[in-house]
Target: SET domain-containing protein
Amino acid sequence: MVEASRAFHTAPIGFISTTSSSRLLNKPTHHHSVRLRSSRRNAIRCSISTSDSNKLSVKQNAITWGCEVDSLENASDLQKWLSDSGLPPQKMAIEKVEVGERGLVALTNIRKGEKLLFVPPSLFITSDSEWTCPEAGRVLRRYSVPDWPLLATYLISEASLMKSSRWSNYISALPRQPYSLLYWTPAELDRYLEASQIRERAVERITNVVGTYNDLRLRIFNKHPELFPEEIFNLETFKWSFGILFSRLVRLPSMNDKVALVPWADMLNHSCEVQTFLDYDKSSQGVVFTTDRQYQPGEQVFISYGKKSNGELLLSYGFVPRAGTNPNDSVELSLSISKSDKCYNEKLAVLRMYGLSIPQRFPVQITGWPVELMAYAYLAVSPPSMSNEFEKMASSASNKNTSKKDLQYPDLEELALQFILDNCEASISKYSKFLQQSGSMDLDVKSPKQLNRRLFLKQLAVDLCTSEQRILFRSQYILRRRLRDIKSGELKALTIFNGFRNLFK
Model:
């Protein structure tokens, strides 16, 4: 499992404009990063020493700060630093746990409805935090860099300064390589996530991170190499910092949706069974959460990262709950209008009018699917004679329509349901193929480290595909039953009609 914590309503990256040439997919390894002898930048000049004795040597794919994801080596230093910096006495401590590698465990009895943490704003890392290297901060603000890239750069800057940074105790307790799909190679994404739509989301995220780094490099870093040397500010360190942000950044509704890294609070792991989440409490002036169950001494204390599917949890946090344990689990079903459709161009035009595309993905849960999916299906199967309804269908299929109406087209219902069923079964076949082949995957790998990594990734993929296929099987059952009811109803009506005809003969 992942040592996760962390963000409920994680916002998309606030990208600065990216050039098309910079939006490339790139990605190296997972758990086996290389430890290097650490050097540091001059804390006053914020530049790299050019002398041979002090020159920073950073090899590709190496992060020189942080610790292993399950390590407690820096936990006591972190707790002491937090207490010395204003964190009140806690009823929890960092320990190794079964769910999450590291987590916060109750030291005493904790009641249901009790407020915990009380982390003060002075311990938050936000876009307003003071830089140990003030010149670097001033440059980024002069370029109006948005919060996410700014925080990513800030984290690298502070980490590279080691003990010179106020945050050194916090950064030394962060994972050296966060569990994240950012660390999967393109080949691994293709190999293990070929059946899941989350693969496309992962590719998009990796592409955006790479594009954001390239934009910063071209527009800012190359112009100020004394502040942002490539030995420190490179793609590998940005994947690390964005991995930390994706898995730990918290949005605080009571502070006008400010995003922040909240040390100590980000050691809490996720449980699908709890509904409590972090927020700023104005009365106590700190980040808290209210327990929705009681905990005994030695029990791990959990929060919720939000109503996320198993795929979304894998995407940001690198773990997958057991199939059937996540009530918010969903799978994206891809629907597409055939190019041979006589009204293809007209349908494409109305879809674009409402920000939709061909194909389009819709979330399906074990309890059913959204009205948007049914509206898209109606549009896909509608004949030319219904062209006056195309825009209404596209509007209902988009999330821009605030007055969601469940469209009713009885004459099209059977065709629409069959259309959804065909796509559902095509998706199920992809999952079945992957799960059947997964047993024989990676048997050709001879390196123990490489084998361990691949087995770990494969198990995550198998867990994800099993949970997503389970939802599709349920949808398949519902669709087949509904189609059977429609056809039996039609047969019954036809029988009654024929009976009446016989009466009049």
The chain has 13 helices and eleven strands. The first strand starts at residue 92 and ends at 97. The two ends are 74 Å apart (CA to CA). The chain has two domains: 1-6+66-317, 330-504.
